[in-house]
């Protein structure tokens, strides 16, 4: 990204009631290697809050007073998707301060919202830069924006563009978004790109638990912890639509049982152990692994594009007690077996 | 039995609708479609309660209790004895699993 600031010549500070920072940033549509590296870090949740663009008004190409204005978030992934989609266009990009959060999430929280949009229109002096009174807002910004209120307060009319920036060319050509352009998907690609961040969230605790289990119950138990976390954070999102039932917790329990079976068999068939130890050893993974994967699966609802809060709340009441009971029961057995082992009773 | 998503808080008052088509434009799941005299609620169970339609409806013909459906935030709020709906979504912070980075 090549960004430079220039004095905004068409924005007269004296004429605006609100303070005008008189700054017009310039960008192009090229996604550089540095940009790609930044996107990679963002996907992995590294320096999560550092992937920001300075809020304000940007010009791309050589826009004039009639050029379209697009609103975006100050998150590099959102902003870069927009500017790369605008290759060959002359336009303005109004970047709202969403604290480095993507458009949809920020709209849900209200930071990509009516107040911020109106504020940004005023402080950038947009009304003096373009002649028309239209801003194209990404459709997923709509949960935070009241088009009517923006119009009353700023004089600008909101047009909701397509969900995905890559459809902008077609949208601008036809002036209409098809129902396909208006619909959010959750493709395998969409799900795969989310897995690193899911994994990173829990990696530290997973490593700690794996080390403790190594000493307490041996390498197989330690491996079970790692496999459970990988299944819950990576495999689960990838195969999400193929697991039976609608509830994420139930899907997680099903996947958890499948993942636990090999470990259960391994413990049950350990040679030289008393029968009761083999039975308890076989039961433990069947209790703990499904509980862990089910919990991770329930948490994945926050990353999906379709679960409602009402439904997630229902799931919490329905399944969290079950998960907790399974995890506690399993842990008690695990600790008991671990102590017996350490004390040399088995 | 294992589907918690059959009910939601979406309410549509068809008689109030002025057929401006905004809801059909902002809904990411095609819950509303354009009708002859007013918008038609065709897929109510697809609603994810994002609230875009209600916020953009000029005549309050749509009601929905919107909010961030973040399990992590809700469980945390519940554990601290707070209202589950008051749970702050953690996508602003470094912890917690929430919010896809789709756009």
Characterise this structure.
Chain A is α/β, with parallel strands linked by helices. Chain A folds into 2 domains: 4-184, Rossmann fold, CATH 3.40.50.11600; 189-342, no CATH class. Chain A contains 13 helices and 7 strands. A 7-stranded mixed beta sheet of chain A has the order 1-2-3-5-4-6-7, sandwiched between helices. In chain A, helix 1 (33-43) links the parallel strand 2 (23-27) and strand 3 (56-60). In chain B, the strands form 2 sheets. In chain B, strands 1-4 form a two-stranded antiparallel ribbon. In chain B, strands 2-3 form a two-stranded antiparallel ribbon. Chain B has 103 residues and is α+β, with helices and mostly antiparallel strands. The longest helix of chain B is centred in the last third of the chain and has 9 residues, at 71-79. Chain B has a domain at 11-63: Alpha-Beta Plaits (2-Layer Sandwich), CATH 3.30.70.20. Chains A and B meet through helix 2, helix 3, helix 9, helix 12 and helix 13 of A and helix 1, helix 2 and helix 3 of B.
Q: What is the rounded Rg of chain B?
A: 16 Å
CATH fold annotation of the largest domain in chain A? Rossmann fold
CATH fold call of the domain at 11-63 in chain B: Alpha-Beta Plaits
Main sheet of chain B: which strands, in order across? 1-4
Tally the helices of chain B.
Answer: 3
Order of helices and strands of chain B: EHEEHEH
- Unreliably modeled segments of chain A: 5-21
Beta-strand proportion of chain B: 5-15%
Annotated CATH architecture of the largest domain in chain A: 3-Layer(aba) Sandwich
Going across the major beta sheet of chain A, what is the strand order?
1-2-3-5-4-6-7
Largest sheet of chain A: 7 strands, mixed
Helix/strand-derived category of chain A reads alpha/beta
The percent of residues in helical segments of chain A reads: 40-55%
Structural class of chain B: alpha+beta
Largest sheet of chain B: 2 strands, antiparallel
Task: Give the count of helical stretches of chain A.
Answer: 13
């Amino acid at each position: 990204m090549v960004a430079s600031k220039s004095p905004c010549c068409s924005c007269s500070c004296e004429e605006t009631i609100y303070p005008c920072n008189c700054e017009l940033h310039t960008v192009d549509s090229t996604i550089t290697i540095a940009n790609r590296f930044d996107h990679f870090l963002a996907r992995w949740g590294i320096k999560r809050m550092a992937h920001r663009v300075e809020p304000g008004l940007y010009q791309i190409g050589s826009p004039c007073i009639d050029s379209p204005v697009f609103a975006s978030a100050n998150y590099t992934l959102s902003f870069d998707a927009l500017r790369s989609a605008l290759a060959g266009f002359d336009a303005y990009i109004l970047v709202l301060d969403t604290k480095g959060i993507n458009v949809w999430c920020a709209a849900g929280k209200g930071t990509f919202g009516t107040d911020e949009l109106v504020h940004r229109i005023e402080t950038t002096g947009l009304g003096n830069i373009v002649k028309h009174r239209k801003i194209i807002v990404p459709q997923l910004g709509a949960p935070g924006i009241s088009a009517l209120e923006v119009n009353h307060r700023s004089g600008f009319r909101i047009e909701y563009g397509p969900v995905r920036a890559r459809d902008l060319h077609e949208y601008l050509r036809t002036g209409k978004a098809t129902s396909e352009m208006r619909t959010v998907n959750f493709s395998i690609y969409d799900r795969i790109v989310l897995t690193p961040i899911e994994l990173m969230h829990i990696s530290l605790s997973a490593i700690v638990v794996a080390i403790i289990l190594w000493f307490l119950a041996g390498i197989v138990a330690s491996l079970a912890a790692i496999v459970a976390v990988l299944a819950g954070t990576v495999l689960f999102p990838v195969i999400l639509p193929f697991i039976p039932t609608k509830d994420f917790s139930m899907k997680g329990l099903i996947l958890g049982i499948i993942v636990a079976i090999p470990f259960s068999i391994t413990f049950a068939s350990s040679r030289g152990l008393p029968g009761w130890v083999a039975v308890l050893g076989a039961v433990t993974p069947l209790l703990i692994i499904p509980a862990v994967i089910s919990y991770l699966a329930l948490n994945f609802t926050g990353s999906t594009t379709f679960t409602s809060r009402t439904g997630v709340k229902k799931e919490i009441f329905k399944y969290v007690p079950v998960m907790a009971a399974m995890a506690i029961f399993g842990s008690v057995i695990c600790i008991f077996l671990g102590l017996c082992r350490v004390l040399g009773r088995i | 039995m294992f589907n918690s998503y059959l009910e939601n808080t979406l309410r549509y008052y068809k008689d109030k609708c002025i057929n401006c088509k905004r809801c059909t434009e902002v809904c990411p799941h095609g819950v509303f479609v354009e009708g002859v005299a007013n918008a038609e609620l065709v897929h109510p169970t697809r609603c994810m309660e994002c609230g875009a339609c209600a916020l953009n409806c000029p005549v309050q013909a749509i009601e929905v209790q919107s909010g961030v459906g973040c399990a992590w935030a809700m469980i945390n709020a519940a554990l601290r004895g707070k209202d589950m709906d008051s749970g702050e979504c953690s996508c602003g912070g470094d912890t917690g699993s929430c919010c896809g980075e789709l756009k």
